[in-house]
Design a protein that fits this description.
The chain is built from 9 helices and 9 strands. It has 246 residues and is of the alpha/beta class. It has a single domain, classed as Vaccinia Virus protein VP39 (Rossmann fold), CATH 3.40.50. The protein has a 7-stranded mixed sheet with strand order 4-3-2-5-6-9-8, with helices on both faces. A two-stranded parallel sheet has the order 1-7. Helix 5 runs parallel beside helix 6 and helix 8 crosses helix 9. It is globular, with a radius of gyration of 17 Å. It starts with a strand and ends in a 6-residue tail after the last strand.
Length: 246
């Protein structure tokens, strides 16, 4: 894991709420309706953070999901809130579950945090049942030729891992997924950025504060690279076929 975890910082929670992502539960609910997820399904939230999505699914739809996250600090918060739901310490590229366990896996603004997106997509494929859904909401770059410069920064934030959409779609298809839905939801990201600037005065200040001024990010320099990448936000739903295509 990177040296600074922005998601463990109270400044991040202050602007994003419990979900720690743009749009709150709006895309979660859209995915539930699109996929027809019900209380009979077994769901995994990949990068569950403080357990907001798992709690939402249970309270609104009586779906008992499992939350997985590499942060002991965030999982402790999640577990304190519920003695009914299950939370597991772990990482996306080595999922601690048997094959064909889940009907659905959510990765809400978390696939971009994974060290190896291809390996994570393959692991999700393994633990999904046939015809299971991989639900991804995340950030991407409209100018992906600039994203390599983001790798020079060593802190944990989805904005550091902006997706190249073509590369992501190709990776999913090579694993054996069929992409059923793609929606551009960049308006939700814009709303969040406006809120951050209103609260902190600038994105530079926000990045410095969310990394506790530990020196793992130069807020001004990082923001300039982000602007060059032209960030957007999307919802993608992919479906696992009966067998993996070579």
């Amino acid at each position: 894991m990177n040296s600074c975890n922005a998601y463990e910082n109270p400044n991040m929670k202050e602007v994003t709420g419990q979900t720690l992502r743009p749009g709150g539960f709006s895309l979660t609910e859209k995915a539930v309706q699109f996929c027809g997820i019900s209380r009979d399904d077994i769901v995994l939230d990949l990068g569950c953070g403080m357990g907001a999505t798992i709690e939402y699914l249970y309270e609104k739809h009586q779906i008992k999901g499992i939350g997985l996250d590499p942060s002991e600090k965030l999982l402790a918060i999640a577990q304190e809130k519920s003695d009914v739901l299950e939370f597991v310490l772990g990482a996306g590229d080595t999922l601690p579950f048997e094959k064909e366990t889940f009907n659905c896996v959510f990765a809400e603004c978390t696939l971009s945090l994974m060290d190896d997106v291809n390996e994570t997509a393959s692991e999700v494929f393994r633990v999904l049942k046939d015809d299971g859904y991989f639900i991804i909401s995340d950030v991407y770059a409209r100018a992906p030729e600039n994203i390599n410069a983001l790798k020079n920064y060593s802190f944990n934030s989805c904005m550091r891992g902006l997706h190249d959409l073509d590369a992501l779609k190709n990776s999913l298809k090579s694993c054996g997924y069929e992409i059923l839905l793609f929606n551009d939801c960049s308006d939700l990201l814009k709303e969040l950025l406006v809120k951050i600037i209103f609260s902190y005065g600038s994105m530079d200040v926000f990045w410095s504060k969310t990394t506790n001024n530990q020196g793992c990010v130069n807020g001004c320099g990082f923001q300039e690279i982000l602007k060059a990448c032209k960030p957007g936000y999307f919802l993608m739903i992919a479906k696992k076929g009966d067998k993996k295509n070579g």
